[in-house]
């Protein structure tokens, strides 16, 4: 037998109410998004002459009435006729946005699924809609529904074009009868929506009312990432950074993303100033879809190492309402990910080539991104090989990998022909070793931040032509012209005595001596830990 699955609305409705979104506060994002869509549609229709008359002051109002326990969302957008209300609100999952998009391609419309409106029922015992279409001669329409599959729909007198949605907040959702809470949700999700949104409170306790705040829209309808980079100044970028992170220091530089093929992506990524890896604050990138905030948990969406960046990514191709596990597998998300990595690498390369002094001056912060990126992303590493820097502890001069190889070509190669990068993790503590190495004409570079030990391990595997050696280790092993040579500062007797006193074997003081034009006697200074031994001998009174 063949047939059609039948859906019983009475059963489906409570399920939607409960499970549509795990986060109930989302209802406000959905309803404001619809108000924005209605306003944007009107602009589109007006611009092509299909909507006549003045648009007037296009704004959205969110009004909380504490006594009546209602929350209203009011727009001056296209509104709906009775037929449209019946079509869009009485039919689940019939998305007018989808239909409109198909008809008028480039319109910036948020909705897609045709379910957002129903999220109102997650928090409402009753939803009322007062609406009037932009069409000439349209009549006002009233619709209401208490969350059962029954609704009321009739004509009313309504003067102005647009839609007012009144939510009667239900008992379990009283948390939303709170101006502070509503303002918080609006600021979180609607901060950069493209139409001014005003929040006000009716019947609120007088002393809590803040008239001045109410006269300001809660959003910035023209965030700079949607503008052309050529229209923007350095100040614009820095001011926007401050708008996002009021407490943040001026960023080092930024990348303005602007792609429209093969996917849509805009946004600004800032490189913050960072001195040590423990200062890193992740989750500073916010993800938007057509200026609607989606999440600030961008893990899986941007490459791991770019989570160190700050800023905004906006892509209508990133779905609004899906889970993170879905995002991971989403082909657009993967493409976006690759694109951002490439952009960041290109930007760094550009600064490096055009303004090396400034690149070097910022290396303290930049090094962290670059190294982290090289460790976690092979494509990035390929590009970064050209601009990753090594800093000589002697004169603070910076070398690229190639420059370092060239500069040490005659002096610092091991028997496999690999360039030996001698590094210090602590220029103060290891001073004696550094001096000794320098006396032998070796260059010692600083690799002293928290990330460096991981970086060294990682590059040891990835860079075929390089071998890393810590300045206070057995460097002799790794350099050319090595002669095995045994030498010891301690006699066997002394060694035994120390072992007896301290209860452990002093480190192996037998050294292999590197002899490159140097006397064998000079070598142990590098290869053993003479200070340590001396101190132990002091303590033992030897
Ligand atoms: P979506 O936004 O994904 O299309 P919704 O369930 O949020 O789905 O809304 C369903 C439809 O109802 C919308 O596509 C739109 O046609 C209509 N609608 C909802 N809110 C408004 C509004 N404020 N003004 C005009 N039409 C609206
Ligand atoms: Mg919607």
Automatic annotation (TrEMBL):
Position of the signal peptide: none
Family annotation (Pfam families): HATPase_c_3, HSP90
Positions annotated to bind ATP: 30, 34, 75, 80, 95-96, 163, 324
Origin superkingdom: Bacteria
UniProt keyword list: ATP-binding, Chaperone, Cytoplasm, Nucleotide-binding, Stress response
GO MF: ATP binding; ATP hydrolysis activity; ATP-dependent protein folding chaperone; unfolded protein binding
InterPro entries: HATPase_C_sf, Heat_shock_protein_90_CS, HSP90_C, Hsp90_fam, Hsp90_N, Ribosomal_Su5_D2-typ_SF
UniProt family annotation: Belongs to the heat shock protein 90 family.
UniProt name for this protein: Chaperone protein HtpG
Native source organism of the sequence: Filimonas lacunae
């Amino acid at each position: 037998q063949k047939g059609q699955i039948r859906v019983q609305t009475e059963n489906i409705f409570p399920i939607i109410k409960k499970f549509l979104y795990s986060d109930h506060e989302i209802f406000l994002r959905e309803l404001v998004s619809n108000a924005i869509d209605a306003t944007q549609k009107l602009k589109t229709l007006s611009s092509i002459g299909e909507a006549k008359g003045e648009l007037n002051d296009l704004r959205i109002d969110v009004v909380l009435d504490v006594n009546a326990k209602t929350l209203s969302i009011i727009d001056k957008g296209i509104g709906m006729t009775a037929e449209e209300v019946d079509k869009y609100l009485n039919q689940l999952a019939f998305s007018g946005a989808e239909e409109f998009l198909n008809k008028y391609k480039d319109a910036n419309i948020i909705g897609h699924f045709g379910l957002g409106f129903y999220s109102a029922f997650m928090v409402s015992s009753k939803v009322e809609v007062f609406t009037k279409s932009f069409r000439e001669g349209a009549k006002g329409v009233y619709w209401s529904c208490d969350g059962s599959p029954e609704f009321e729909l009739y004509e009313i007198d309504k003067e102005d074009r647009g839609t007012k949605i009144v939510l009667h907040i239900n008992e379990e959702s009283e948390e939303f009868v709170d101006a502070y809470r509503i303002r918080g949700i609006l600021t979180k999700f609607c901060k950069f929506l493209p139409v001014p949104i005003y929040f006000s409170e009716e019947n609120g306790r007088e002393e809590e009312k803040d008239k001045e705040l109410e006269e300001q829209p809660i959003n910035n309808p023209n965030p700079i990432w949607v503008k052309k980079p050529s229209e923007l100044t350095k100040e614009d970028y820095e001011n926007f950074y401050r708008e996002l992170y009021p407490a943040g220091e001026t960023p080092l530089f930024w990348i303005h993303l602007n792609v429209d093929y093969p996917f849509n992506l805009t946004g600004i990524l800032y490189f913050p100033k960072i001195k040590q890896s423990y200062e890193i604050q992740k989750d500073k990138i916010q993800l938007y879809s057509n200026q609607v905030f989606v999440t600030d948990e961008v893990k899986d969406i941007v490459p791991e190492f770019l989570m160190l960046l700050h800023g905004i990514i906006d892509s209508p191709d990133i779905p609004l309402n899906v889970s993170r596990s879905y995002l991971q597998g989403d082909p657009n998300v993967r493409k976006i990910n690759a694109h951002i990595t490439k952009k960041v690498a290109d930007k760094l390369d550009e600064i490096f080539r055009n303004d090396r002094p400034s690149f070097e001056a910022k290396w303290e912060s930049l090094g962290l991104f670059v190294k982290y990126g090289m460790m976690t992303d092979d494509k990035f590493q390929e590009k970064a090989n050209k601009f990753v820097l090594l800093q000589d502890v002697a004169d603070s001069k910076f070398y690229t990998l190639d420059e370092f190889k060239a500069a040490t070509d005659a002096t610092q190669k091991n028997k496999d022909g690999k360039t030996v990068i001698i590094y210090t993790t602590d220029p103060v503590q290891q001073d004696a070793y550094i001096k000794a190495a320098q006396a032998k004409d070796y260059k010692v570079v600083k690799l002293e931040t928290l990330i460096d030990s991981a970086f060294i391990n990682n590059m040891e595997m990835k860079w075929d032509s390089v071998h890393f050696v810590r300045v206070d280790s057995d460097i002799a092993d790794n350099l050319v012209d090595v002669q095995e040579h045994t030498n010891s500062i301690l006699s066997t007797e002394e060694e035994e005595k120390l072992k007896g006193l301290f209860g452990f074997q002093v480190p192996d003081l037998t050294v292999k001596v590197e002899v490159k034009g140097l006397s064998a006697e000079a070598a142990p200074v590098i290869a053993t830990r003479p200070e340590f031994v001396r101190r132990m001998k002091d303590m033992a009174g030897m």
